[in-house]
Amino acid sequence: MTKHIILSIFIFFIYSCKTLADTKPYWIFFTDRGSINVEQAIAAKIASPDEPKNKSRRARILGNELLFDEKDVQVNPDYISAVTELSGNVRTLTRYLNGMSADLDIETLKKVGELPFVREVRPVSVFRKRKESLLPVSMKPGEPRKGAALQYGESFDQINMIGVIPLHELGYMGHGITIAILDSGFDRLEHSAFDSLRARSQIAYKRDFVDGDDNPEGDDHGSKVLSILAALDHGKMIGVAPYANYLLGRTEIVENEVELRIEEDHYVEGIEWADNLGADI
Question: SS in 3 state form for the chain?
Answer without folding.
Answer: CHHHHHHHHHHHHHHHHHHHHCCEEEEEEECCCCCCCHHHHHHHHHHCCCCHHHHCHHHHHHCHHHCCCHHHCCCCHHHHHHHHHHHCCCCEEECCCCEEEEEECHHHHHHHHCCCCEEEEEECCEEECCCCCCCCCCCCCCCCCCCCCCCCHHHHHHHHHCCCHHHHHCCCCCCCCEEEEEECCCCCCCCHHHHHHHHCCCEEEEEECCCCECCCCCCCHHHHHHHHHHCEECCCEECCCCCCEEEEEECEEECCCCCEEEEHHHHHHHHHHHHHCCCCC
